[in-house]
Amino acid sequence: MKRARGGLPINIWETISAFANAAGGCILLGIDEKDDFRISGVVDAGAQESQLSAICSEMEPPVRAQIYSVAIDDEIVVVCEVPQLPRDQRPCHKRSIGPWAGSRIRVSDGDRKLTDYEVSVLLSNRREQKHDLAPVPGASADDLNSELVNAFLRRIRDTRSDIFRRVDDERALMMLNVLTKQGDQAIPTLAGLLVFGLYPQTFEPQLDITFVVYPSSEAGLLGNSGERFTENRSIDGSIPFMVAECIRLLKRNMRRRSIVSGIFRTEEWEYPEEVLREALVNAIVHRDYSEFARGTQVQVEMYPDRLLIRNPGGLYGPVDVRSLGVTTVTSSRNKALLKILEDTPFGDGHMVCENRGTGIARMLLALTDAGMEPPSFADDIASFSAEFPNHTLLDEEALNWLGSLDGYPLTRAQMTALVMMRNGIALNNSSYRASTGVRDSRAASRDLRDLVDRRLIEQSGTRGTTVYRLIGTRAEEAGLFDRPAPGKAISSLGLTPNERAVLEFVRRAETSRARVEEATGLAYHQVVRALQSLRDKNLVQMNGKHRSRSTTWSAT
């Protein structure tokens, strides 16, 4: 929102670039955000529309925004709807100054210049990546674990084309991109070294995993005994070894809990082992191995309330966060590495990865079977993260509530969805599948329709806008109007200190802006800015009109 009373802001191109490089957005000219979002209007709407159109045309690639004017309270407001740019066309930048200086991204309520690494990642998405095929200078075939290599070759010769049985080991390993020629010598590729190396960190010291266990819910907060962390390790070795060792350390720092599976109660780790393996392998396999990123490790951070796994380099290719676990479309910047791991034994009879695009779907199913909430994924260009809440969705209290419903059997997916709705979350077909691991949209529709027919949930909207919620009486019985909205821990949402303080108070009950000021001790403009940012992130909602004394705010 911009006042723009005297003309377009000189930096309006930055917001256009930022929106195009993210999920798109809407620019409103003629609304004064510094004056409680007062509708001030613009002087010459036609001229501003033309200027906006010209600026959009000066971007690279040109932005095809929808620009129009609307009348609000006898004032004219100019609207510019900026679409999301396809991943393989980013970064959107100001043509005259180039991508390195002219690319922006939206952060909270401001526009930030993309770092050189972020620009590099976006530009690299436009072409095929082959960093995993690069030869490793100084390494030789003697630096590979012969036992692992032989097991790999046996599987290849048992399951693949006859050609691998007709060539010698060196030739087979070159055909499989484990070795490559440098002059007259066969040396390991980066992929081959990472999978089969005796100690790959001799040549690439930072291509490992850091494992940290924090005593409190935020990094930096000291524990009861003044400790910064309870465990801090660097995990080196080949990929199969690092994954196995990281799982061992995670188990050492996990508790076992009692869960309900069908009619039986069983003991299980706080995080299912299958979930940990899939998440770790995904982080290692899909990370960025370019020269820019080889100084950054895969990071595993364990908190009392969540587990966070982060890797350098965001998503690659046509996939986005919303499609993860919903479709089997997959894309990787490290194709050779994936292909090798597909036939690399993990040690328990399984291969390290399957390379079929179903890893995240299996992860969701394992969490659903354990009665746990689905993870949240974040792609911020320079890194990708998966965050797993450390609490069960289908706990004893939730199971008792489910048992008080209509008495007819529920599938595990339906139980998960009902409890999520009980926690104040509205679902559609896509989010139902993403949360429960149900992959077929028709099966999801049948599940949701069954719950509607049984008068447990209600449907609103049609076609693409259809959402499902607990019906009013069920919501009241569940106590939704008597408790703060749950969801992710505030500490894990990536908010500013002011935003955290405001959200903490708003989550307790519906309240006014003045009450937020009084409770938090923040100034008027700080509260307004925090509320607007939280609203943009869909964490709070405004109930009423701008500048109305009766307007209140509540958690979404």
TrEMBL record:
<protein>
    <recommendedName>
        <fullName>Schlafen AlbA-2 domain-containing protein</fullName>
    </recommendedName>
</protein>
<dbReference type="InterPro" id="IPR038475">
    <property type="entry name" value="RecG_C_sf"/>
</dbReference>
<feature type="domain" description="Schlafen AlbA-2">
    <location>
        <begin position="12"/>
        <end position="113"/>
    </location>
</feature>
<dbReference type="InterPro" id="IPR007421">
    <property type="entry name" value="Schlafen_AlbA_2_dom"/>
</dbReference>
<dbReference type="Pfam" id="PF04326">
    <property type="entry name" value="SLFN_AlbA_2"/>
</dbReference>
<dbReference type="InterPro" id="IPR038461">
    <property type="entry name" value="Schlafen_AlbA_2_dom_sf"/>
</dbReference>
<dbReference type="GO" id="GO:0003700">
    <property type="term" value="F:DNA-binding transcription factor activity"/>
</dbReference>
<dbReference type="Pfam" id="PF13749">
    <property type="entry name" value="HATPase_c_4"/>
</dbReference>
